[in-house]
Write a structure and sequence with these properties.
The protein is an alpha+beta fold and 75 residues long. It is built from one helix and three strands. The protein has a three-stranded antiparallel sheet with strand order 1-2-3, with helices on one face. The radius of gyration is 16 Å and the shape is extended. The termini are far apart.
Length: 75
């Protein structure tokens, strides 16, 4: 898949056990060599990838700030 492209499949079943129906998005961002696979119970579209991109950034930032996990102590 070329960088910057995405494909979307709606109402598909996966594996020989026919898990689904589910919605699948597959994309390769412009930067990097990663390929994203998003499996959802809701129809997938470009905004799905945008939302997951924001989520990935938030998680990456969280682990950069606090690599040992979140330590919560009651007062």
């Amino acid at each position: 898949m070329a960088r910057g492209h995405a494909c979307f499949w709606q109402q598909v079943c996966l594996t020989e056990k026919h898990y689904g129906p589910v919605h699948l998005a597959v994309a390769r961002p412009q930067a990097g060599n990663d390929i994203w696979y998003v499996l959802s119970d809701e129809p997938t579209e470009v905004t799905t990838l945008e939302e997951y991109g924001l989520r990935f950034d938030i998680e990456r930032t969280f682990w950069t700030i606090n690599p040992t996990g979140f330590s919560w102590s009651p007062p």
